[in-house]
Amino acid sequence: MTQIDFYTHVENRYQTLCVLAGKALARGLRVMILTADGAATERVDKLLWSQPAIGFLPHCRAHHRLADVTPIILDHVAEPVVHEQLLVNLCDQPPPHFSRFERLIEIVGLDDAEREQARARFRFYRERGYEIRTHDLHSAA
Fold it and tell me: What distance in Å separates the CA atoms of residue 118 and residue 93, rounded to the nearest whole number?
């Protein structure tokens, strides 16, 4: 069953995404980042090319010819699923294929509307029997 983690009270979702993706990459995990739309994909793409400050996080789109050998897949299109290790959801809705992954990460910012959408996703997963771990990054700071 997919392990689900919610990171809550996040000041900067995109910065937290880069940190989590970097940690996963350091552990040898493959990551799929699902964004809401093309503009968000472009924004994350630029961040991944400059994070960390003295490097970058290697990534490409799901349809790229090197997707099978690239550790981070970034796209706003849910298919194809290139691997099934770690999915980071930056969308308002649960991804249609989240249960294929070993782990799902949801990153929740401080905006009230965003938090309400995250609560709906939390209920969605819980109602389907998934155990959910939460990580309050505000209290961790």
Answer: 8
Total domains present in the chain: 1
Indicate which CATH number applies to the domain containing 119: 3.40.50.10110
Separation CA 4–CA 56 (nearest Å): 26
At residue 78, the 3 state secondary structure works out as coil
Q: Give the structural domain span for 68.
A: 3-140
C-beta atoms surrounding 24 within 10 Å? 20
Nearest to 16 by CA among 88, 118, 122, 119: 88
Instruction: Label residue 87 left, alpha or beta by phi (over 0 means left) and psi (-120 to 50 means alpha).
Output: beta
55 phi/psi in degrees, rounded to 5: -165, -150
Q: What is the pLDDT of residue 67?
A: 94
Reported as a single tens digit per residue, the pLDDT across 70-111 is 999 999 998 888 899 999 999 999 998 999 999 999 999 999
Contact, 45 vs 63, CB < 8 A? no
- Burial of 120 from C-beta contacts in 10 A (0-12 / 13-18 / 19+): exposed
Looking at 1-141, which runs of residues are DSSP E strands? 3-8, 31-34, 59-60, 72-75, 86-89, 103-107, 132-136
